[in-house]
Amino acid sequence: MDEPLALGVAVPARPHARWMLRAVGAALVLTGIVLAALEVSRAGAWGPVLARLGLGAFGWGPLVGAVKGLVEARRGAVVPQALWLLGPAAAAWLVGWALVAAGSLSRTTPEPVTAEAAGTAHTSPLATWRDFHLGTLAAYGLGILGAELVLVLVQTALASASRGVGWGAPAAFGVALTLAAVVAFLGGFVGAARSRKLSAPEATIAVLYLGVPLPALLSVLPTLPALDATLGPRFREIIYLANLLGRPELGYWLTFSLLVLGLTLGILTGFVANASGRLDVRTGFELFVARRHVHVFRPRLLLGGLGVLLLGIIPPLIILGILRAADAVVERTRIRELGRRDPLAAAKALHEAQAKSQSPTEMMTALSVGGVGVGVMALIIVLSVMSGFEVDLQKKILGTNAHVVVLKYGDPQAGMPEYPEVMKKIAGVPGVVGQTPFLLGQVMVASEAQVDGAIIKGVDPETTGQVTDLPRNILPGGDIRWLAHSEDIPVRSRYRMDRPKDDDVIQMPKEAPSGPPLPGILLGRELASSLRVLVGDPVTVVSPLGGGMGPSGPIPKSKAFRVAGIFYTGMFEYDSKFVYVGLKAAESFFGIPGATGVELKVKDVDDARRIASTVLNTLEGYPYRTKDWGEMNRNLFSALRLEKLVMGIILSIIVVVAAGLIVATVTMLVLEKRKEISVLKALGVPQGGIVKIFLAEGLQIGLAGGILGLFSGLAWCLFIEKVGLRLDPEVYYIPSLPVKIEPLQTALTVLIAILVTYLASIYPALRASRVEPVEGLKGE
Amino acid sequence: MAFIEIRDLSKSYWLHGKRIDVLRALSLDIERGELVSLVGASGSGKSTFLHVLGTLDAPVAGTMTVDGVDVLGLPDADLARFRNRTVGFVFQSHYLLPEFTALENVAIPALVQRMERPTAFRRARSLLDRVGLGARVDHRPGELSGGEAQRVALARALVLQPHVLLADEPTGNLDPVTGEGIHQVLREVNRDLGITAVVVTHNEALARSMPRRLRLAGGKVEPA
Question: Which ipTM did the prediction report?
Fold first, then answer.
């Protein structure tokens, strides 16, 4: 060292300059805030601005919120002038923060702290410690922001390009999310490997200031029309996808959390791999040690856990008690016998029997495995049942409704008389496998006994079977062909003629074996039973508007039909509200020429949206329009998805509690193994190795719990599917609980549970790595 | 230049606000292949000195070079490597890992440096044979006697053929006859393998049998 020996601690260069920078920066930040406040006051926008500020008082939240509040206040038309002060305010705020950062980060010449005693360098690791790594911040920031951009770009590109390939937005999202998670992971890995620590401040800044803005922007986008018009189209695929959920914000933030999870995993992995200063991703030895510390993959523990998850707590406990008791009796007898012949051997056997009793850590391990298992099992069962409901609902909706409907703008009374030409054009569109014209109206249906409102649909009996399940849903005794050939309907002649006919508006159909036969009508099972009619009975259909104008307003129009069949879809709404008649009969009844529109069936249900737009292109747009089934039932399905998501989040709390158990278990393990950690360090295991050992222990617990949960969850699902849990048909209109095991969803559940347990063991593992080698070697 | 060069090594503790100087500017040279005994009163800092020598504990000030390398300034990964390859430890208590068999315990230093498992176990077996425990390879530490466990610990310290063996009262917990067996092995490895050994002991007879004898007193070493 050629510099003169320092006396005591070296002082940083020019502390005054740094303090000046910081002070000026802080003053500028304050000025910015004051300017913005002035502006808000001038605009009279404190109310909405404060409302926003309260919502997201962190990161970019206040800024976005304040802007939004101001814009809302402007919309209220109280604004005097342009918001010219806002620009300088923001500039002052930003520059101020930059100055504060510069003042805090400016590097001083690193002078070694010298010891008086010998003039040799202080060897503590603190000598080379750096508090803040700009490179790490850059890596983390690039990781999270890059992941978000990759997600948006890949999703947009794939979803747009897939218009011909045939995979929908969700599949594209899977690919995009995976890629984005990889980017986030890499960012975290590189950053943590560079700084050799977890660098929590850098990660916080990166997530808050580079990660949060995009989801925040997407969340507020719908409320800012000006911004929505310019930015909306760029994010169209993301927004479309999130809207499928019903609550788009939830989708944005959930995806964001997943990306943050990816970043965190990357940081952790990078740190573990490089904590000791040399990149080492091998884990053979660490696993070797970890497996001995926690034996979770013992058949007894796994079988016991599975038993508890499948049968509940009490029965396996009883079985265990019986087995233990029997075991103990056999053992005691053996030792007694042995004691007569060889007292020494008996003493040894007794000692061994006592040594077998479980340690508290083992007990905790078993409990944690069980906790994770319960969480995963509950998630799998509930999500599968909800998927079952969704699939069941979809099947029923698609059985009754078309996949795509072609309609026409304008007066519904004008109808679509040109439907044969339209159908001819549509027939050429690839992916369309069936089409049928239809006519829709609202009527009242009256029988001799009852009156009920219904939606009437005129269908073509020849082709409707190509699109809907109507012909297959008709109960025995009826026939859809009778809609066209009503003379074949067997007439039920139990009609009582003694009934007074005083109502001349709703005329009861007379028994008319002579004259032209009544046209046929199909009723749903619920409607038929509430009207108390059977096949062959006559009913009267009344339209409140069809009869033209009379002196006291519109005159209802009525017409008699004969029940040609009764159908059963399994959806209460359809079975009680829909009636079908022949297209010609509907045409003449409503006076609408042709049809309301054309119903289409497509090859791939999930591709309906794309095919609908192709059909629209073929028809050259206006005056035609298309609607796919997802659009027609959007509220229902997004409510269902939202419900599923919220259920998933709530049930995830079980997994989080289990993760807490894992923290406790691994912490106990660390305390118990203090001496061993010291010995391992003395034998040359670096800090990273110790972290790996205890991470592996937590991961093993998570893995065992995840596998147990997976198997028990699948077993329960199979049980529900095969044996069935009966539901009250009056309430649910489904005979038994539906189950649909979705492989991707199930795999994701297990994977995320395992990742959470992995994250849970970070803290205890880091604590383990900080045990000093001499700590455990003392005091003996 | 000596193999181990220690200059002005100081180590202090703060206990209830009072400073206790354990080592005071201690300087010492140890040549390659030397067999050194270190004696001293209880609490004179023998163990602390040995821990610092093995980089398990960091001194407050001073330098220490081993084979020309300044080991006190090494980052964690290199320190771990140093402890793994250059130094072998034997403590007063055996400190074997209870979950592993004797064979696995001996093989652990080799496994830490990612040696193939069969190679590591082969080495461990031959060392256990050498310390006379070839028949007890599959026993856990709990099933070994004190002397046997200490011999396993010795085998573990030697499995990677370290340059330096640091022994902290290796026979402190053993009876004289069993202890003599351990001493025998220590002298053998020093003679046959040329391993530099520093043995802290209370046993005056053992200390006297070593070629170089040191005493730690008042935070400094002096020839005994």
Answer: 0.93
Determine the Cα–Cα distance for residues A520 and A480; give it in Å rounded to an integer: 9
Q: Where are the domains of chain A?
A: 12-106, 362-394+637-769, 402-491+514-629
Q: What is the pLDDT of residues A565-606, one digit of tens each?
A: 888 887 778 888 888 888 888 888 887 777 888 888 888 777
SS3 string, A694-735, reads HHHHHHHHHHHHHHHHHHHHHHHHHHHHHCCCECCHHHHCCC
Among B174, B216, B205, residue whose Cα is nearest residue B40: B216
Closest CA to A701 of A373, A225, A319: A373
The 10 Å Cβ neighbour count of residue A775 is: 16
∠ Cα B33 B35 B41 (to 5°): 145
Cα–Cα distance, B23 to B8 (Å, whole number): 9
The answer to whether B99 contacts A293, with C-beta atoms less than 8 Å apart, is yes
Written as one string, the DSSP assignment of B23-70 is EEEEEEEE-TT-EEEEE--TTSSHHHHHHHHTTSS--SEEEEEETTEE
Q: What backbone phi and psi angles, to 5 degrees, belong to A600? A: -120, 150
Q: Answer yes or no: do B111 and A285 touch at CB < 8 A.
A: yes
Distance between the two ends of chain A, CA-based, in angstroms?
Answer: 42
The model's pLDDT over A484-523, given as tens digits with 9 standing for 90+, comes to 777 777 776 554 444 445 455 555 554 545 567 788 888 8
User: Is B61 close to A122, i.e. CB distance below 8 A?
Assistant: yes
Helices (H) and strands (E) in chain A, counts: 30, 11
Pairing assessment for the beta strands A549-550 and A553-554 based on DSSP bridges: antiparallel
- Nearest by CB: A773 against B56, B93, B111: B56
CA separation, residue A640 to residues A347, A636, A647, A702, B132 (Å): 65, 6, 10, 30, 72
Could A682 and B81 be called an inter-chain contact, meaning their C-beta atoms sit closer than 8 Å?
A: no
pTM over cut 0.90: no
B57 touches B168 (CB < 8 A): no
Judge whether B75 is closer than 8 Å to chain A, CB to CB: yes
DSSP code for A58: S
Q: Closest Cα of chain B to A689: distance in Å? A: 9
Q: Dihedrals φ, ψ of A380, to 5°?
A: -65, -45
CATH superfamily of B33-58+75-223: P-loop containing nucleotide triphosphate hydrolases (3.40.50.300)
Q: Find the largest Cα–Cα distance for chain A.
A: 127
Beta-carbon contacts of A28 under 8 Å, excluding residues fewer than 6 positions away, are: A92, A93, A95, A96, A99
d(CA B205, CA B208): 5
pLDDT tens column, B168-216:
888 877 788 878 888 888 888 888 888 899 998 888 888 888 888 999 8
Q: What is d(CA A205, CA A134) in angstroms, rounded to the nearest whole number?
A: 11
Helices B146-158 and B117-130, packing angle to 10 deg: 130
Nearest CA to A457 among A311, A577, A566, A570? A577
- Comparing CB atoms, the residue among A683, A774, A780 nearest residue B108 is A683
- Residue A565 phi/psi, 5-degree rounding, is 180, 160
